[in-house]
Specification:
5 helices; 4-stranded antiparallel β-sheet; alpha+beta; 17% strand
Length: 167
Amino acid sequence: MLGSRVWGHVAQVAGVETALLVATALMIASPLLGLRLRMPPVKAREEEGSLLENPEVRVPISGRHGTVAIEIEYRIQQKNSPEFRRSMQDLRLIRRRNGAYGWSLARNMADPNMWIERYHFRTWDDYLRQRNCSTLTERTMEDRIIKQYHEGPGKVRVRRTIERSFG
């Protein structure tokens, strides 16, 4: 909004042609300014043990292979189940916004403390894109849910499978 006011004022005072020439000059100069004023380097993620660990892949797979199914097992005390389910609804929205589909949350009938989150991506590339481009807010929410509700033993268990069609 401020930019449109400034350029409108420049065009009114100096003329449209001059405003366009000045805008062109600034556009040409901006990459040169970027060489002088560099962005700070991006630090490596310090998320050892998080869901963002590199997936172990021992089968030949290309980016177009799919459907990819993700299963995450959480161990939740029964008294925390209602709050956990509410938190997972927020996480569901994030997963779907990032391209996942078929999201579900299931409770193991033989072990009521085990909850399984399951969702899909159409291709391996889609999954990697979502996994590597998650925002700080999204990672914080995942970490909060794990720290607040997961009771172990150990970390949450993540399974990544590729579904093969027959036909």
